[in-house]
Amino acid sequence: MTVTLNNILIVEDDFYIRDLYVRELERAKYMVRTADSVKQGLEEIKKQKPNLIMLDIMLPIRSGLELLEEVKKDKNLADIKIVILSNLGEDDIIKQGFAKGADGYLIKSSHTPKQVLVEIERYLTK
């Protein structure tokens, strides 16, 4: 498993949202890969370990929280920074995300793509 500097995986099932963030991150010179499900996300992580995962919670079949839990339980992957990017803003869901190991939690509707980029850069430099 190789690691490329500034390699970001976006796990998001909505094509338009995923594409929006891909364009913003690529413009900022990040290497971006995408997945639209937990299963595909895990496959992408195993192909090439990302520096950071932008993770939606509401995904088909399995929740993004399940992917978060699987990654953080694997000692070879636990150091990957994971930022949840969701429209679910209820306190109990946010607490669950942090309890399972999320490094950050951003509400999509509260952040422009440029603001998300600033936050991602902050998490990558921590």
UniProtKB/TrEMBL annotation:
Top-rank taxon, per record: Bacteria
GO molecular function: DNA binding
Any one Gene Ontology BP term: phosphorelay signal transduction system
Span of domain Response regulatory: 7-123
4-aspartylphosphate found at: 56
Short name of any one Pfam family annotated for the protein: Response_reg
Keywords, alphabetical: DNA-binding, Phosphoprotein
Record Gene3D superfamilies: 3.40.50.2300
Name of this protein: DNA-binding response regulator PhoB
Native species: candidate division CPR3 bacterium GW2011_GWF2_35_18
Taxonomic lineage from the root: Bacteria, Bacteria division CPR3
